[in-house]
Amino acid sequence: MQPFAFITVTGEQAARQAAAYPDARYLAGGTTLIDLMKLNVERPSTVVDINAVPLAAISELPDGTVRVGAMVRNSDMAHHPLVRDRYPLISQAILAGASGQIRNMATTAGNLLQRTRCYYFRDTTMRCNKREPGTGCAAIDGYNRIHAVLGTSEHCIATHPSDLCVALAAVDATVRVVGSKGARAVPFGEFHVLPDERPERETALEPGELIVAVDLPPLPFARRSVYVKVRDRASYAFALASAAVALDLSGGVIRQARVALGGIATRPWRAHEAELLLEGREASVEMYRQAADAALAAAIPRRHNAFKIELARRTLVRALSRAEALS
Amino acid sequence: MIGAAIDRLDGRQKVTGRATYSAEWPIERLSYGVIVQSAIAKGTIAAMDVSAAEQAPGVLAVITAGNAPKLPQGGQAGVNPPAGRALTLLQDTRVRYNGEPIAVVIAESFEQATHAASLLRVNYHEEQPAVDIMQALPTAEPYTKKILGQFEPFSRRGDVDAGLRDAAVVVEATYTTPLETHNAMEPHSTIAVWERDQLTLYDATQYVYGVKRFVAKTLGLRDDQVRVVSKFTGGAFGSKGSAWSHVVLAAMAARHVGRPVKIVLSRRQMFGPVGGRPYTVQRLRVGARHDGTLTAIDQDVVSSTSTFEDWVESSTLQTRMLYAAPNVATAQRLVRLNLGTPTFNRGPGESSGTFGLESAIDELAWRLGVDPIELRLRNYASVDPETGLPWSSKSLRECYERGAERFEWSRRTPAPRSMRDGDHLIGLGMATATYPAKRMPASAAATLTADGAILVEAATHEFGTGTYTVMTQIAADALGVPIDRVRFELGDSNLPDNPISAGSMTVSSTGPAVHAAAVALRERIRQAGADPSDVESCRRIIAAAAGAPLSATAAAAPGAEKARYSMHAFGAVFAEVRVDPELGELRVARVVGAYAAGRILNPKTARSQMIGGIIYGLSMALFEHTAIDPRNGRYLNADLSEYLVPVNADVGDIDVLLLDETDEHVNPLGVKGLGEIGTTGVAAAVANAVYHASGVRVRDLPITIDQLLAGSDR
Amino acid sequence: MTHMRSTSSVLVDVELLVNGRRLPLALDPRVTLLDALREHLGLTGTKKGCDHGQCGACTVHLDGRRILSCLTLAASASGREITTIEGLADGDRLHPMQQAFIDHDGFQCGYCTSGQIMSAVALLDEPCGPGEADVRECMSGNICRCGAYPGIVAAVQAVRQGRG
Ligand SMILES: Cc1cc2nc3c(=O)[nH]c(=O)nc-3n(C[C@H](O)[C@H](O)[C@H](O)COP(=O)(O)OP(=O)(O)OC[C@H]3O[C@@H](n4cnc5c(N)ncnc54)[C@H](O)[C@@H]3O)c2cc1C
Ligand code: SF4
Ligand code: FES
Ligand code: FES
Hints:
The structure holds 3 protein chains of 3 kinds.
Chain A: E1 5-8, H1 12-18, E2 24-27, H2 33-38, E3 46-49, E4 58-60, E5 66-69, H3 74-79, H4 81-86, H5 88-95, H6 100-105, H7 108-112, H8 164-170, E6 174-179, E7 182-187, H9 188-191, E8 210-216, E9 225-230, E10 241-250, E11 253-262, E12 269-270, H10 272-278, H11 285-296, H12 307-326
Helix pairs in contact in A: 5-8, 10-11, 11-12
Chain B: H1 11-16, E1 31-37, E2 43-49, H2 51-55, E3 59-64, E4 94-95, E5 101-107, H3 110-117, E6 121-126, H4 133-136, E7 141-142, E8 154-157, H5 160-166, E9 169-177, E10 189-195, E11 198-203, H6 208-219, E12 226-229, H7 245-257, E13 261-264, E14 280-288, E15 294-305, H8 317-321, E16 327-336, H9 350-368, H10 372-378, H11 396-407, E17 420-421, E18 424-436, E19 442-448, E20 454-457, H12 467-479, E21 486-489, H13 506-527, H14 535-544, E22 550-556, H15 561-564, E23 568-579, E24 586-596, H16 603-622, E25 653-658, H17 682-694, H18 705-710
Parallel strand pairs in B: 1-13, 11-12, 15-16, 20-21, 24-25
Antiparallel strand pairs in B: 1-5, 2-4, 2-6, 3-5, 7-16, 8-16, 9-14, 10-11, 10-13, 14-15, 17-18, 18-23, 19-20, 19-22, 23-24
Chain C: E1 12-18, E2 21-27, H1 33-40, E3 59-62, E4 65-68, E5 81-83, H2 96-103, H3 113-123, H4 132-138, H5 149-160
Parallel strand pairs in C: 1-5
Antiparallel strand pairs in C: 1-2, 3-4, 3-5
Helix pairs in contact in C: 2-5
The complex binds flavin-adenine dinucleotide, iron/sulfur cluster (SF4) and FE2/S2 (inorganic) cluster (2 copies).
One FE2/S2 (inorganic) cluster (FES) binds at residues 48-51, 53-58, 68, 70 of chain C.
């Protein structure tokens, strides 16, 4: 770990002031940041501890939006009645991730900003465009079993590893941030960006901007939703493929569908193509298969990860079938 | 007392955090060493800029090939496995694998040392490495020396080609096992302390005497200048049976800075420099008549080693003795790769070898339409078929029977994909487990102290096997005193000499020495006019001797039994798997292992050890593989998030049956050892169950979703 | 509002409240809670297995909840209540979970054990289902390479079911 200055702040204002130091980083749960600092992948000059900033509440707004503070711990979010009852896919996604200890540390904002588990990104002796722009991507023709098949570019094929974000993508969450130019709301679909030519840039966040909350819009049919995660071991492992699904079914017909995929894409992957195909159709496994084919139509396999395309399809079919069974 | 299921005597220390592992000794003026590793797999270091590291805050020294002391014979003076390995001790600028030590940075604090280590700038002349076993396979060469000085590298009985011609059915297949990294939970760690020319090493090891002798030789010291202490080791599985580079480097660093130095390897650093199970590529040909009688077995094993030390994974040994086939040939070949040197890994040889052999036997059973247990019984070896020697004892038939009964093997319907539970496919599979019963010379001391307590000492090791507990039981039993009168001390090379704790031979080696020392002390106490079981009388004789304690020492060594008997533990392992036919997800719901391994000294710790061995086998079956970058030999998944081992949720019901077995020949205690056998056979049992469940025959470990998906429904 | 600012050469003042004791320290800000316990306070019961949040050996309680001390900066834990394995027993009287681990042989080498026990104790106050499968899932953040899992599950169930 490179030496850094350590600052503790208790308010938003102070946090943003401190974050104005060059190469400053906020410290929330630390489960991504400290890990990567130990690997010399993150080398902040200043660490701004925001654990004392009061952003840890979950509340309901008058319009029914559920506002989750940036510093709410993932375990608290998963078990909160407003989340658990109204957005089961979110609770399930969180509880399918990491471990009890990590979920007690990890925060809402931190989870959005976690970095890829790409081996080459985490090893400073290897080439990596995301870590050191312009050095090349060692994964594209290296060992890429855990890498993405959707949203990739010739410059980066790293998987976005979050489970929570897949569920947030499905429900159209909004990320509330404050920065030097004031407060703004970023739709979830615009929060994470594709790697394209600049894989080092992962989100729409500007330097120094502080996430203060994530808003979950009212979505009544999300009460019947699921998150299905497939991984190499039964627990404490990242997804090989996952799917977050909510279905609005009436008389066997799908009125609305929300579908997002994880473990296979460079960012939390909302599958609009699949939704379009499903909406207005009669629910059936055949329909789900078609939707899954549509969701994966643009997938690009690499040497070791081709299996993920079929796995993701089947994971999605499974999730849709389960969601249907709930309704 | 022997045979009692008593709680671990070191349990209290372990559950309160008071057991002292090697990195935890409080040492004055301690400094921290961090090893810097190569970033290429083959070549030489052209230039190394250490200035930034040297100037970093808190740095005491940076040791490289440029300033490291020259060691006798280029640092190779002590090479003599198992303890003494060919190491990297900064004697030259060659690089032979990715992650090889190239420097040590010593600083006041761990944080300073780790940071400074990242500041070294290294330029290499890089050469093309060989890191892909499959590509390098054509370069495999027959190994011709005795494996570890003990086992023939090849075997031949009868005429395999003729046997295969006689066969009605021949299974011919290649099975592979990947590079596996032990990953004991405790990282390798060493604290080196010099007091003038005396060196003390607090080391995480399975072999204090081995480390002592090896380090002394390597540094050009007398044996009596080195002491090695290791009171608790946090898991080993073979990885800590050798003194690896960091041990010697810690001693060199401590001398260099004139202060004690602690080196704790990071998890990442445990991939490569401290051994692992090598790749194996096993080609098997097994032939049988229609009735299931085996006519021939041919096993050719290629395993990988480094470019600078030969290490053979002896995966052929069980093939020579398990079945009464008339024609058997085995051979071991080696491929040299630019990777770290492999070493023992739980059930070395047999764990990988039984995957090949017992998978092939299962394939044969299916082809013949014979029940897998029945096929094994038809070829049951009533004497060692290779040597013709009688078994010292063998209860494998009972293991098959009792295991099958407990597992309810009879409910298995033979056809693949014929058993279901809801949406899941169910598969039942089995395999044979076996491991040789070994023994080495050992010694022990027993002392009656003034308070009437008895101290028993032997320089053996505790890394979870229950050594403190079992040795105390043996001594108390021999002395005829209650457990709480005896204290057993281990893990210090100032105590009586003992062999490596590996190969399941701690109890069979050290046990008889402890027993003999206890018996000798018992006789001395009696001669002095006291009754060992009467504390008061014991105290009196010590008081009468002006407080001088009464001691006895004893040595115990194997005799001629090895020439007269073939000595092995056996077992049968059964696995029930559930496969999700759409997603390819695989779970092992249940394992039953039935073992006969001689006398069981403590059923409680023994059962745990068998469960642990089985889980280690499940880990081989389902998860473990060290991913190597095909271009530069980098260890890619070098952490516990990407190198998968089982978590609690992966482990279903595990049922262990320990059969009564009396063995009057193997050693005076009649024990055969338990540490390794649990891991053998498990991967094959799981693979066989997976085939039964899904119809997919997996011949390459680990069995992952990718493989099952390929052969599944849509 | 800014409580502390330090640079590399400047140590930060932290006050760790460990097992009911108030322990002031001046630390390099890079020191993790785990290393503060092990290297600075001599509390070596908390173990380092991976140093990256991947094994659970370093589990301690922070403000009553289980967390990983290897991914927590000591400075960040300043002023918050920390319980380690050394703080569980009441003098010579073991915590029921410690005793249950002995009774059910929930360990072998003992290296993961502190973390397992700290997790298991925290679990008693978490929404973990009643079954063995629930315990297995809730305890999956603590790797045991010796494979003591069945004993660990038995120990946790014994305590939860009041069979201490
Ligand atoms: C072993 C392991 C296994 C894991 N498994 C999974 C898994 O299966 N599924 C899964 O989804 N995740 C998994 N994770 C990832 C984990 O969920 C994330 O590390 C965690 O959510 C990050 O949150 P944090 O609060 O700890 O973030 P931190 O590490 O504190 O911060 C992460 C980043 O976010 C920035 N940041 C934090 N808060 C703010 C804010 N309010 N405003 C702006 N920037 C901010 C920080 O500066 C930093 O750059 C795993 C992690 C580990 C270590
Ligand atoms: S995939 Fe992305 S993160 Fe991985 S090496 Fe390539 S550029 Fe780096
Ligand atoms: S040491 Fe903290 S999780 Fe492994
Ligand atoms: S007891 Fe050894 S790692 Fe768990």
